[in-house]
Amino acid sequence: MTPGVCSSILIELPVAHIERHLGVPAGAQRCAQWPHLIDSARRWCREYVTPSVRTRHVTIAGISGDVVELERGKQLTSSLLAKRLRTTGAHALIVAAFSAGHEIDDEINRLWDAGRPDAAMVLNAFGSVLIEQLRACVARQLRRTMGARGMRVLPHLSPGYDGWPLEDQANLFSLIAAAAGPIELLDSGGLRPSKSMLAAFGLARVRATAAPGGNASEFRTRTWAEQQWQTAFLTG
Predict the structure, then answer these.
(1) Which among 94, 121, 148, 152 is most buried, taking Cβ atoms within 10 Å?
(2) Domain that holds residue 91
(3) Would residue 122 count as lying in a domain?
(4) pLDDT greater at residue 55 or residue 30
């Protein structure tokens, strides 16, 4: 996953999503200042923010109750994750770390200190939407790439979701800490920079079916080595 994987993200962030993070009801009349503030936040981010994405392939060794056993003795504990992986027959996880970097946190604080709360709140919302859209962009790319290899990429899950306690964030972070870029794990389970996120995408082989008149063995999904995945997707 190269650093420029979603380079157009800052141009394409939906205004409606930014307004949602600002708490604006759908269809409500917009504040006259918001278009200017959103445009200013967009221009600032395009100049100073470089979103980062790190991914790692992790093999699933087994699932016991709510515990997902992983390679090298690692574990994740989540009833939600375990159920999804079990029911889909997933054999691996793609662990991903997304971040907008420290710069956006520093600028939000500067705006507050400068007595510009409106600009600070819009930039804060802009950063939240940036991470959402970055995650969605990476998911699309993974689906395209892995789909071509006979793999199905499941929707992401993250600690803090119902069924995956935030306390397990440390275990998820340990799987990608060596390549997490600017992200730090806080004692609370939160992340620094604040506009950061960890996610796990289940990976399952698509069951092959024979074409009419064909041989099922001709359509069997090929497995491929973790080293191939790391060469193509693991960025440091």
Answers:
(1) 94
(2) 9-25+32-206
(3) yes
(4) 55
